[in-house]
Amino acid sequence: MLRVLRTAKSVLSQTFYLDGVATDATGSVVVTITRLDGTAVEGGNATGPDANHKYTYQFQGRDVVDWLVVTWAATVSGDAIVLTDSIEIVGGFFFSTTEGRAVDPALSSLTKFPESDMVDYRAQTESECERICGQAFVPRFLRFTTNGTGQTALMSPVALIRSIRSVKVGSATFAPADTASVGYSDAGMIYLSQGWVPGVPSGVKNITIELEYGWDAPPIDIVRAAKIRFKSIALQSRSPLPDRAERVVQIDERGGSVVYGSPTTEKVGIPEVDATYSRYPSPRPGFG
Fold first, then answer.
1. How many CA atoms, within 13 angstroms, populate the side-chain half-sphere of residue 281?
2. Is there a contact between 43 and 32 (Cβ–Cβ < 8 Å)?
3. Which residues pair with 136 in a beta bridge?
4. What is the CA radius of gyration of the chain?
5. Positive or negative CA dihedral for 227, 233, 236, 242?
């Protein structure tokens, strides 16, 4: 999964392997990009292969937050192969990779820490923070399908809804005016609209909703804490004294011991980071 900033272009890449060996395709590699509902976004032939048997495609960007599916179709050694990637179009990042590298001089090395690794570490940092806090700190997109309950409200999987983009009940898609009448709350509740009278129709997986959610931008203390966590992930097993060291206990003149914080499902194990994340509990009642 690749996260791309809204409106930004990005170079996508893919390599085909046959029995673990990178292998060139016969003929063109066709790239198709669609939304989760199957709507076509763009596509064309990939460029390549290069000396490392890698193919690339220039994604032209998208002006709204979204989730996209990328398929790479090719013929390799006589077999038709289709590989799939995902793109999450986001409204922002916690920090740039340049800002992330500036946290520690060791991270400035492009050889030891390639840009692709920095992007992955940042995505891991953001996902972990938002899972612990139960909320997104930048604008994101969600498409989910749920059961109709016959009630006048639904609980979405996320908090801090920003807008409802589309609603589909059974085979009927709401008109824009009906979609605009759907209410929602910071806790993630989605309320009755005129299309749900007298309640959300009962059924199994009969309601599909697309929405945007999250903060406009992360608060400064979350950014600072996330940078500390980013550094700890990037330098894992490289630092003699990890960031999760809570204190050093001196036993005598011959030495001492280090007391480490323990990561859990709700903590990363770094006291300063955990203290910051704990200040932002989920808006969803009963979360965790």
1. 5
2. yes
3. none
4. 23
5. positive
Q: 214: closest CA among 127, 279, 87, 112?
A: 127
Give Cβ neighbours of residue 214 (< 8 Å, ≥ 6 apart).
Answer: 91, 135, 136, 137, 138, 139, 140, 160, 162
229 burial type by CB count under 10 A (0-12 exposed, 13-18 middle, 19+ buried): buried
pLDDT along the chain (288 residues), means of 10: 95 95 97 97 97 97 97 96 97 98 95 95 97 97 91 90 94 90 93 67 88 98 98 80 49 51 81 96 75
- The CATH-assigned architecture of domain 1-89 is Sandwich (2.60)
Return the residue matching tokens 């085979």.
171
User: Torsion over CA of 271, 213, 35 and 7, rounded to 10 degrees?
Assistant: -80
pTM: 0.86
Of 54, 52, 48, 59, the residue nearest 11 (C-alpha): 59
Domain with CATH 2.60.40.1220 in the chain: 1-89
User: What are the residues whose beta carbons fall under 8 Å from the beta carbon of 227, sequence distance 6 or more?
Assistant: 94, 95, 99, 100, 103
